[in-house]
Recover the amino acids of this structure.
């Protein structure tokens, strides 16, 4: 894992030098497997972590930017919900979790989570303006209206390693669009195997 992490640090270093940067762990990253995932240790990013613009965050992650409330996950909550429920698309699953006011309705039964006894960290206390999930197969978005008239922008953020697609969001009107950087970094046939300590090996199935 050392070389890929070094390359990632170089890329993040260039971004953090000029822009605020939040990074969240995912299912194949060197972090705890159960939700909520703790922030990736800064020792993994010796270059980019020296900037005060760099912030290693938890998964799920909630933050506010210019008065806009964001709530997001790395995708495990809706991916697991899809295994045991039916919907037209991932946005429908996202909308359900918002209306249920719970980010991870399948935890702890089928989605690993830390055993809290005094509180539920997945309970949605306040409605966000933007709700996003990462590591999805494709980009998708929708605006939904809450029971009190509040508007929420739902965003499925695609796997950049497979699609080469990032998502741009306008904070003024919450309009968003996909931005393609061309050739994917990792072939779509590549598989990610989760091993102990949530370390990830990339296997190229195209050679088999």
């Amino acid at each position: 894992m050392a070389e890929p992490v070094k390359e990632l640090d170089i890329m993040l270093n260039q971004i953090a030098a000029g822009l605020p940067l939040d990074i969240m762990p995912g299912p194949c990253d060197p972090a705890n497997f159960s939700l909520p995932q703790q922030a990736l240790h800064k020792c993994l990013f010796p270059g980019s972590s020296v900037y005060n613009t760099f912030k290693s965050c938890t998964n799920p992650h909630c933050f506010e930017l210019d008065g806009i409330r964001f709530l997001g996950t790395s995708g495990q909550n809706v991916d697991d919900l899809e295994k045991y429920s039916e919907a037209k698309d991932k946005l429908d699953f996202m909308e359900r979790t918002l209306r249920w006011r719970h980010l991870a309705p399948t935890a702890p039964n089928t989605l690993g989570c830390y055993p809290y006894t005094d509180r539920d960290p997945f309970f949605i206390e306040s409605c966000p303006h933007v709700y996003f999930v990462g590591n999805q197969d494709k980009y998708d978005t929708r605006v939904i209206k809450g029971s009190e008239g509040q508007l929420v922008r739902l965003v499925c953020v695609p796997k950049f390693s497979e699609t080469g697609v990032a998502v741009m969001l306008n904070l003024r009107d919450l309009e968003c669009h996909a931005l393609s950087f061309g050739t994917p970094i990792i072939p779509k046939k590549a598989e990610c195997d989760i091993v102990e300590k949530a370390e990830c090996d990339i296997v190229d199935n195209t050679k088999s």
Observations:
- The chain has a mean pLDDT of 89.
- The first strand starts at residue 21 and ends at 23.
